[in-house]
Design brief:
Layout (H helix, E strand, L loop, with lengths): L3 E6 L5 E5 L3 E3 L11 E4 L4 E5 L5 E5 L3 E2 L8 E8 L6 E7 L4
Antiparallel strand pairs: 1-2, 1-9, 3-7, 3-8, 4-5, 4-9, 5-6, 8-9
């Protein structure tokens, strides 16, 4: 059985329960945190908007939510897009209980 972990969405302030196997990404240093989204394709190419407004692409490395620490800020898989191979990640954190 997969452990459930409480996650705080930093864009809308909502709490949710996610499995420890849910995909996460490290936050790019220049990510526009107001936008707070990264799209990842099936080849693990992540794309996002920087704080300056430009678009960036990078090699994304997906790690399970169970590897994250309480209070750590990361990006978490939101939901599958039109293609099963594409996924959007949102800015999130594991809140202190």
């Amino acid at each position: 059985m997969l452990r459930s972990i409480r996650v705080l969405d930093l864009l809308d302030g909502k709490l949710s329960e996610r499995t420890g196997a849910t995909g996460t990404l490290d936050v790019p240093a220049d990510l526009d945190r107001k936008h707070g989204l990264v799209s990842v394709d099936r080849r693990a190419h992540g794309s996002y908007q920087t704080a300056e407004g430009s678009q960036r692409t990078y090699s994304a490395f997906v790690r399970p939510l169970s590897w994250r620490a309480t209070g750590e800020v990361f990006l978490i898989a939101e939901s599958r897009g039109a293609k099963d191979d594409d996924c959007t990640y949102r800015l999130a954190s594991i809140p202190k209980e």
